[in-house]
Amino acid sequence: MKDILLKLSESQNLTKEEVRRALEDIVEGRATDAQIGAFIMGSRMKGETVEELSACAEFFRERAQKVFVKNPEELLDTCGTGGDRSGTFNVSTVTAFVLAGAGIKVAKHGNRSVSSKTGSADFLEALGAKIDLPPEKVSTMIEEIGIGFMFAPMFHPAMKRVIGPRKEVGIKSIFNLVGPLSNPAGARRHLLGVFSDVFVEKVALTLKSLGVIRAFVVHGKDGIDEISISAPTLVAEVKGDEVSLYEFSPEDVGIRRFPLEYVTVSSVEESVKMGLSVLKGEELGAPYYMVLLNAAFGVLASGLVDDLKDAIEIAKESIQSGRAYQKLMQFVDISQKL
Predict the structure, then answer these.
(1) Is the pLDDT at 40 greater than 60, yes or no?
(2) Are 82 and 116 in contact (CB under 8 A)?
(3) In this structure, are 31 and 155 located in the same domain?
């Protein structure tokens, strides 16, 4: 570990083997808290490479509790990195139910809040859902209703060793990035928001190296880890072996921009209220249009259609038909019974 930390201190990139060795030392208890903190800080200051991210994701994928489903190549995840500190409502979770309402199989990976007011686990728990289901029950939910939730701490026991040092160091790091890259159900389609534009292309290239079929890695220029309703969004699209980088703005599809504060909340309760309003199609304001845009990119990632405007219509129909809200109610009900 000392040799690896020396390399990081000299801004030298690590090989895949060195990353694995460092992670083994961390997970198996040979590295001290000070060394884990130094690894986090050294990686962040040097800047994580695609090779390092891939090695880290492969390591935690191997050690995750697996969720087995039929046709895993159809599965889509909307899990992002979090850590943007914007205070928006839980867009990625609401988006997941819009996608499920459109008939797309969703393996939603998530956690409690890290820096926002509400994480996906907080949001679902506030609605009465049981969030800590074991792998076989998550599999049942995906097969029966088309959406399941994997609570990250349960599915990644290998991450336990880094929780304390991460909190003490208090910076966003390689471990923020590896969670969304380590879906326990092996989802090969992603809508993945990242906390910094620095990681948009890097994470897309990492997903490509991990064999995803279709993915969109996004970062709003207003600092959020979603497709933004208030600013252009930097997008890296993964399609097979190709990665393309471009900007997207709401006006590109005829939707006006709204101030970011229109989609921010100060509590879990506010986030739930805003999310339910969207899923019920009650108010066609900023939260609705923000979910619509994110869901449209999710539809593209699923492979249902190739045109963004067609994808928007599919997302809109999921909400306006009531199917998105019904999926949420089904999810809560069945999670309690399993």
Answers:
(1) yes
(2) yes
(3) no
